[in-house]
Write a structure and sequence with these properties.
The protein has 12 helices and 8 strands. The protein is globular, with a radius of gyration of 19 Å. It has a single domain, classed as P-loop containing nucleotide triphosphate hydrolases (Rossmann fold). By secondary structure, it is α/β, with parallel strands linked by helices.
């Protein structure tokens, strides 16, 4: 029995070590044109869970079309209550499914910029505790249209830009790459083409954006893959459900599972500790609101 307990303890220790080394933070950014970015966040998250990962989705939006609302859920607390010390961070967490949690984090930049050192440390520690058992942190991030606009996309280790074959979406994708590369020294980007008829069309669209980005920036742009146009996506949205498991046989479901597998295999350029995300998020808000610093 002692040997069995030792083996169990060792397995737990090795698992914790692997988690510490491999925990991923990825922001998904998308532009105008109703390109389906929030639905992709949900379906990538559920696909990662289906493959055995534990996922936390952070929702930067406070609207009727945000991640929580798309799953028929509502936030119980506000982040302001947590920042003031009136509620723990875990009180904001919504359990969407086994191994899938949603964390609504819509906040005014000034609320973060005003945090003193003790409040920031407490918030960062609560966040690190929340992420202790998480394999993937996915962020439905606000788009960046100017160099003085805060976004969680600046705080994650990786950035995934959602692209669609629409003029405004293509323009916005290039704008994101240019701003993040030129003004924030972010060099590595993944692109995901949504609602493409096939891989050839997705590849051609990717090359159009990547060619311009490589010509005018120092960005390294890679194609993650594509999700085909699929009526079941709209049906799942109306039912306030993810594709998995409701429409497991749909083409879009298979595509999302393939994308989840590719994400697992990708080696990120950098991996930082869980609380680093929070500190970077706070600092970028302070940088854009210097007059709000305590």
């Amino acid at each position: 029995m002692a040997e069995a307990r030792w083996r169990q303890d060792q397995a737990t220790g090795l698992r914790q070590l692997m988690q510490a080394r491999s925990q991923r933070s990825i922001s998904l950014i998308g532009g105008r044109g109703r390109i389906g970015k929030t639905s992709l966040v949900i379906n990538l998250a559920t696909s990662l869970v289906h493959r055995g990962n534990r996922v936390l989705v952070i929702d930067e939006f406070n609207s009727s079309g945000n991640v929580a609302a798309r799953l028929g859920m509502r936030a119980r607390q506000r982040l302001g209550d947590v920042l003031r010390g009136d509620a723990p961070l875990e009180s904001l967490v919504l359990d969407a499914a086994t191994d899938l949690q949603i964390l609504p984090l819509s906040v005014q930049p000034s609320q973060l910029a005003r945090l003193d050192a003790d409040s920031e440390a407490r918030f960062a520690q609560q966040f690190a505790d929340l992420l202790a058992d998480v394999d993937f942190l996915l962020v439905d991030a606000a788009p960046i249209h100017s160099p003085d606009q805060p976004s969680m996309a600046l705080a994650t280790d990786e950035r995934l830009i959602v692209l669609a074959d629409r003029a405004e979406a293509i323009t916005d994708a290039y704008t994101f790459i240019k701003l993040l590369s030129r003004d924030f020294a972010k060099r590595d980007f993944l692109l995901l083409v949504n609602r493409a008829p096939d891989y050839t069309a997705a590849k051609q669209l990717f090359e159009r954006v990547a060619r311009v980005a490589r010509r005018h920036t120092q960005a390294d742009v890679r194609l993650l893959g594509f999700v085909p146009e699929d009526e079941t996506l709209h049906r799942a949205n109306h039912l306030l459900q993810p594709l998995m498991p409701a429409f497991a046989d749909a083409e879009a479901s298979h595509a999302c599972l393939q994308l989840a597998e590719v994400l697992e295999r990708l080696v990120p350029v950098s991996l930082t500790p869980p609380d680093a995300f929070v500190h970077r998020w706070i600092e970028c808000n302070r940088a854009f609101l210097p007059s709000q610093q305590p």
